[in-house]
Amino acid sequence: MEQSERVVIVTGAASGIGRATAVRLAAAGDVVLLADRDGEGLARVAREIAACGGRAQPAVLDVASSDDCAAAVAAAARLGPLGGLVNVAGMTTAPDGVETISDAQLELVLQVNVGAIFRLGRHAIPLMRAAGGGVIVNTSSVHAFATMTDNAAYAASKGAITALTRQLALDLAPDRIRAVAVAPGSVDTPMTRHELARRGVSAEEAGFASGEAGSTAIGRVAAPEEIAAVIAWLASPDAAVLNGTTVVADAGLLARLV
Ligand SMILES: NC(=O)c1ccc[n+]([C@@H]2O[C@H](COP(=O)([O-])OP(=O)(O)OC[C@H]3O[C@@H](n4cnc5c(N)ncnc54)[C@H](O)[C@@H]3O)[C@@H](O)[C@H]2O)c1
């Protein structure tokens, strides 16, 4: 069952793609549990959704914590039958490499980007099963398919998300729970601007000001709202025949060979 009025958990909901996704799903009638470690950001998004007549509730959590994940899913269950889990929260440790990253940093990026899907899923899946079905949308990246130098842990984590999405689709199909992923390219969010700044590239140089991708990318920089539109579609009954797949939403970034 993918009902028109569902409770959907969105992680990373305080910023960037997660915020835009939460706003979009709430506008479409979903009851959204806004999950993030940034409580102030969540409160802002909750106010924004309420001002538009949508329904949302903030839940501060660290997706690397089992207890926090269990509590967030329980909070979602109190809002009604759970129909969706949208895993957007993520982090990068770049610059990193196999020789340079510490065990602690490696553990952190894998736990936040990949482990969270297990930790939230183990509580959310039984609820969606009981509700007659649902959908899990994960946030992979173009880094699952092609990458840049010094990005080992992030690239590995995003490849794992794409593989895990296939696995979830297969395992959960009998329960009428779909699992799909989106792989964004370059999106104008705080995470990307932070990464550009670290590399000494200004937003203007990267084409973020104009919307045209410049020296760092091919195609076009996406707005978070454009990725949210893809996620909302993936989470909707219109995408019922998509299962186990990762949809690349990169404005043509991967299309170019040289
Ligand atoms: N921005 C891009 O170009 C791009 C491209 C491909 C994939 N992605 C992926 O999209 C997702 C969202 O990224 P964004 O660009 O919107 O970044 P962002 O920094 O704007 O938002 C990430 C959010 O995740 C939250 N978060 C991080 N660690 C957390 C934790 N341990 N517990 C709870 N919340 C946590 C942050 O507080 C933040 O609100 C990430 O998974 C990222 O890897 C982004």
What can you tell me about this protein's structure?
The chain has 258 residues and is α/β, with parallel strands linked by helices. It folds into 2 domains: 7-184 and 224-243, Rossmann fold; 186-221, no CATH class. It is built from 7 helices and 7 strands, in the order βαβαβαβαβαβααβ. It has a 7-stranded parallel beta sheet with strand order 3-2-1-4-5-6-7, with helices on both faces. Helix 5 links the parallel strand 5 and strand 6. Helix 1 (16-27) packs parallel to helix 2 (39-51). The protein is globular, with a radius of gyration of 17 Å. It starts with 6 loop residues before the first strand and ends in a 9-residue tail after the last strand. The model has no long low-confidence stretch (mean pLDDT 93). Bound molecules: nicotinamide-adenine-dinucleotide.
Keywords:
258 residues; alpha/beta; binds nicotinamide-adenine-dinucleotide; Rossmann fold; seven-stranded parallel beta sheet; 7 strands
Using the alpha-carbon principal axes, give the shape: globular
Contiguous runs where pLDDT drops below 50 for at least 5 residues: none
Strand order, sheet with most strands:
3-2-1-4-5-6-7
CATH superfamily of the largest domain: NAD(P)-binding Rossmann-like Domain
**CATH class category name of the largest domain:** Alpha Beta
